Amino acid sequence: MRIVQLSDLHLSSQPLYGVVDTLAALQLALRRVVASPAPDLLLLTGDLTSAGGGEEYALLRSLLAVLPFPCALLPGNHDDRDRLRAVFPGQAWAAAPLCCQRLDFDGGTLLLLDSIVPGEEWGEVAAPQIDWLEAACPQRRPVLLALHHPPFNVGIAGMDRIRCRGEALLAAWLARHEQVEAMLCGHVHRFVSTTFAGRPAIVAPSPAHQIALQDGPLAYTLEPGGYLLHDWSPGERLCSHYLPVATSLTQCYGDG
């Protein structure tokens, strides 16, 4: 199956910091996704809005409603669980308060794990998340696990301070569930590829602004936005592609 992953939209009707037009960036990204071979799913891994406001979610809903493929949403630390549920009641939400989802496809299952801690920038996998995973995880189907906060360091000090805590609990759970084949994350505003608990772990960039790869205080950069395309053959392999939001003309080459 083909999964397009967008993350850290920070959608707002007004430019962030006066210069980052997140609405235009998302519209550009969606135009490219629609112009490409249709995915089986558009996965949005958190920080869907800038401030978790109802108007921002309504704007996002209007942009997603016209897409010819299904979408699945996961909250990030900039999101509000209650407003997200209210504006997107058709999502397969688990019981409140966590905004988790289990999505079954031919041959595999996608588990969307809510890692947010309301009022905090950092995330956490604690007993409620483990309890949900234990109940939702199928026993005999390949699984992809998605969560907003990566439970590992990425080499940017400011981001590492606000990553997902409780990584030992998650690693122990993964050790008991070999059917989980890989992990998809957001939060970092950069493409990162590594491993966690012996699984491939991939972090998506933002379609808008990126986090500067530098020492010192956190800073944003206007490096080109992007998103990820995952071709998943459950039980076999995950193949992930980075795509920039902005495109140029494709040149076709003949046999010679």
Number of H- or I-type helical stretches: 6
Beginning-to-end CA distance, first to last residue: 33 Å
Largest sheet: 6 strands, mixed
Rg on CA atoms, Å: 17 Å
Helix proportion range: 10-25%
Query: Please, what is the oligomeric state?
Result: single chain
Strand line-up of the largest beta sheet: 4-5-7-9-11-10
Total number of strands = 15
Name the features.
15 strands, Purple Acid Phosphatase, chain A, domain 2, alpha/beta, 256 residues, five-stranded mixed β-sheet, six-stranded mixed β-sheet
Describe this structure in words.
With 256 residues, the protein is an alpha/beta fold. The protein has one domain (2-244): Metallo-dependent phosphatases (Purple Acid Phosphatase, chain A, domain 2). The protein is built from 6 helices and 15 strands. The chain has helices spanning 22-35, 54-65, 81-87, 127-136, 157-160, 167-175, and strands at residues 2-6, 41-45, 71-74, 101-105, 108-113, 123-124, 143-147, 164-165, 180-185, 192-196, 199-203, 210-211, 220-221, 226-233, 237-244. The chain has a 6-stranded mixed beta sheet, with helices on one face. Strands 3-2-1-14-15 form a 5-stranded mixed beta sheet, with no helix packed on it. The protein is globular. The two termini are 33 Å apart.
